[in-house]
Amino acid sequence: MINSLTKEKYNYYVRVLEEELVPAMGCTEPIAIAYAAATAKKVLGKLPTECEISVSGNIIKNAKSVVVPHTDGMRGIEAAVIAGLVAGNADAKLEVLSDVTDKEIKMMKSIRETLPVRLTMSDSELAFDICLSARSEGNEALVRIASKHTNIVLIKKNGKTLYEGKIEPAKESKKAELSVEEIVEFANTVNISDIEKTISRQIEYNMAIANEGLSGNYGANIGKVYLSTYSNDISVKAKAYAAAGSDARMNGCELPVIINSGSGNQGMTASIPVIIYSVEMKLPKEKLYRALVLSNLLTIHIKHGIGTLSAYCGAVAAGASAGAGIAYLHGGGFKEIAHTLVNALAIDSGLICDGAKASCAAKIATAVENGILGFNLYRSGNQFFGGDGIVQKGVENTIKNVCKLARDGMKDTDKEILNIMLNCD
Q: Is 385 exposed, middle or buried (0-12, 13-18, 19+ CB in 10 A)?
C-alpha cells in the first residue's frame, strides 16, 4: 500500500476534482450546443437570421430526446440552439441557460417558427464535435467545440480566425495518471479544507435535484416508483434518490447539478447513493467527504479510459464507484474497494448508452444496485475472479479491459444504436 503522495501528485488530485466537479444546468450535450450558439451570437453581435449546426453522431444521440431547461418543455438539438441564441450567456459556460426570463422563453417559441436551423451529422472522427455557424445581413460567425463540453477550439467571424485552440483526446493523459491505490490513499489523507468547497457544493446541488425529482412529476418517475414499490431500506433509498435526480434532470428541471466527467447523470450517480448511506449510518461529515472524494475520483479514472461519449452507459462506472464509496463508509480499505469495483463492473458492463432521456434514471438505479451488490458480494466472502469473462486479476487490469471494451469494442454498437434511434418515431 502507498504510504504517501508527493506534494505534486496531491495537488494534482485536488485540481482534478476542482476541474471535473463543476455546475451544469440541464443535460450537458444540449447545453454544450446552447453554449456554442450563445458564443456565436456574441461574436455576431445580434440574433442571426439563419443557422447551421453539424454535430457528431454521439451528440445527436445524447441531445435528441432530452428536455432543454428554461424552454417550457422544448426538446432536442434545435431547441438547444434556439435557447442559446435567444437567452444564452456565453460567459456562464455550462450554466449558459441559468438566467432566462419569461419573455425570452416566449421569444424562443416564436423564433423557432421563423429561424431555420439546419442540422447535419458530421463525419468527424471525434465522439464529441459541435460546429455551429450563424448568419445575419451578410455576416457569419462560426464556433466549434470539440473533445469536451466547454472546449472551444475555433471561433471565426466572416472567415477570419478570432481564436483557435487545441483538439485533445478525451483526457487520456489524465486517466493514465490516476490509479485506484493512489485514489484510496488520497481519500484517506486529503486535508478536508482543500476539497470542502468542491464536495460540499456537490452535496448541496445534487441532493436538491434528487429531492425535487421525488417531489415533482418528471419523466417515468423512477425514483418515486422505487420508494412506493420496494421496502424502504437504505439500498432502496440510495437507488431511488439517485434515479430521482435523473428523473428531474432529463425532463426539464431547472436546478443545476454538479457533473463528473462531463455528465450530470454520472455526477449524481457517483455522489447521491454515498450521501444517502452516510446520512442513514449517521456518520461524521469528514467520513462522507472522504468517501465522495473516493467515489468521484474512481469515476473519473474509469470514465477517462472509456472516453467522453460511447455506447457504454457511463452510469455503470459511476455506480461501481458509488459502491466503492459505500464500502469506504463501512470501513473498507484498498482491498475491499478494489473487489467492489471488479464485482460491480463484471455485472453490468453490457449496459448500453442510447442517449439522454427518461430511461437514464432506471439505468442509474441499476448501476447503483450493482455497485452495492459488488460490495455485499465481497463482504459476504464472494467475488468474481480473473478469467471470469472480462475480469482479469488486479483491479487496474479489469478497468483496462472495461475501457477497451467500451472505447474500441463498442464502436460498431454505437453506430447501430444511432441508426436505430434516427429511424424511430
A: exposed
* Three-class DSSP category at 190: coil
Per 3-state DSSP, the chain is made up of helix, strand and coil in percentages (nearest 5) of 60, 10, 30
Q: What is the pLDDT of residues 264-282, one digit of tens each?
A: 999 999 999 999 999 999 9
Which SS3 state, helix, strand or coil, does residue 126 take? coil
The H helix count followed by the E strand count for the chain is 17, 8
Give me the torsion for CA of 153, 158, 160, 163, rounded to 10°. -30
DSSP result, 6-65: -HHHHHHHHHHHHHHS-EEES-HHHHHHHHHHHHHHHHHTS--SEEEEEE-HHHHHHHSS
Please name each of the domains of the chain with its CATH number: 27-164 (3.30.1330.90), 171-422 (1.10.4100)
Confidence of residue 169 (pLDDT cuts 50, 70, 90): low
Whole-angstrom CA distances from 33 to 124, 152, 352 are: 16, 11, 23
What sign has the CA pseudo-torsion 211, 213, 215, 220? negative
Beta bridge partners of 164: 154
Which tens digit of pLDDT belongs to each residue from 300-324? Answer: 999 988 987 889 999 999 999 999 9
Q: Of the candidates 73, 70, 79, which has an alpha carbon nearest to the alpha carbon of residue 103? A: 70
Q: Which helix (H) or strand (E) holds 400?
A: helix 395-404
CA distance 25 to 107: 20
> What whole-number distance in Å separates Cα of residue 136 and Cα of residue 143?
15
The helix (run of H) or strand (run of E) holding residue 267 is: helix 264-281
